[in-house]
Design brief:
The chain is mostly helical.
Length: 79
């Protein structure tokens, strides 16, 4: 099975992860918090993005701004 098949969000309306209201982000993060493949989801999203790509939605329990910081921190750790 792939991480996508095991994801807690697999049966959740994807709109939940693209609602940028405070409540929407909170709801998406709640789904992610209980997910056994949250790290795999985050890693996959970070791996597929190019540095100047526009990024949307909550993936791996993080908003685009949080993922941007995470990517920056990972880059600096590799140096």
């Amino acid at each position: 099975m792939t991480w996508r098949e095991l994801a807690a969000c697999r049966d959740v309306d994807t709109a939940v992860f693209f609602d940028y209201s405070e409540k929407g982000i909170e709801t998406a993060k709640e789904v992610c918090a209980g997910c056994e493949v949250r790290q795999e989801c985050l890693d996959a999203r970070l791996a597929e993005l190019e540095p100047h790509d526009l990024d949307f939605g909550v993936w791996g329990g993080m908003t685009p701004a949080e993922r941007s910081r995470e990517a920056y921190e990972r880059q600096n750790l590799q140096r």
